[in-house]
Write a structure and sequence with these properties.
alpha+beta, 23% strand
C-alpha cells in the first residue's frame, strides 16, 4: 500500500544535483527530512488502528505494521509505503484498507474467513496528513537546495 505526496516541484532537480555532487552529508540530510515528513502519517495510522481493526488482531498488526518513505526522484514524488509481515507472507494491507480482514477461524489455518471491517485504516490518515507531509518534504528539499547552492 502506498500514498503519494506530490507538490515537490524541485525534487528531480535536487536529486540530480545530489547525484552530481556525490555528497553523502546532503543525501543524509534529505533522507532525514523526508523521514520526518512522513513520521506524522505513520503515527496517525498507528494511533487510528483501534477504530478500524478488531481488538483480537490489533496487537498483531500494530507490531508488524511499518510505514516508510520512498523517494522516487525520477518521477518527482515522495511515496509513503505501508507493509506488515505475517507468519508466512506479507499481510494483505490493501484488502484491509478496503474493509476486509481475512483470518483463520479461531486459529485454524486450514479454515480462513473474511470479516468486514471499517475501510480506510491507511488512506484516511494519509489524506489527513498529506498537506503537512508535502510542506515538510518541501522544507527538507529547500534546506538541501540551499546547501547545494552555497557549495
Amino acid at each position: 500500500m502506498e500514498a503519494r505526496v506530490t507538490g515537490a516541484s524541485g525534487l528531480r532537480r535536487i536529486a540530480r544535483a545530489l547525484r552530481d555532487a556525490e555528497r553523502a552529508d546532503l543525501k543524509r540530510e534529505l533522507d532525514r527530512g523526508l523521514r520526518a515528513a512522513v513520521k506524522p502519517i505513520a503515527k496517525d495510522v498507528h494511533a487510528g488502528l483501534p477504530s478500524y481493526i478488531p481488538s483480537g488482531f490489533l496487537p498483531v498488526l500494530d507490531r508488524a505494521l511499518r510505514v516508510v518513505p520512498q523517494l522516487r526522484s525520477r518521477a518527482g514524488r515522495l511515496t509513503v509505503r505501508a507493509t506488515a509481515a505475517g507468519k508466512q507472507e506479507k499481510r494483505d494491507l490493501a484488502r484491509m484498507n478496503r474493509g476486509v480482514l481475512k483470518h483463520p477461524l479461531w486459529g485454524n489455518r486450514g479454515h480462513w474467513i473474511e470479516q468486514p471491517i471499517r475501510p480506510g485504516f491507511f488512506d484516511e490518515p494519509a489524506k489527513r496528513m498529506k498537506d503537512y507531509a508535502a510542506q515538510a518534504a518541501n522544507d527538507a528539499l529547500a534546506r538541501v537546495a540551499e546547501q547545494i547552492r552555497r557549495s
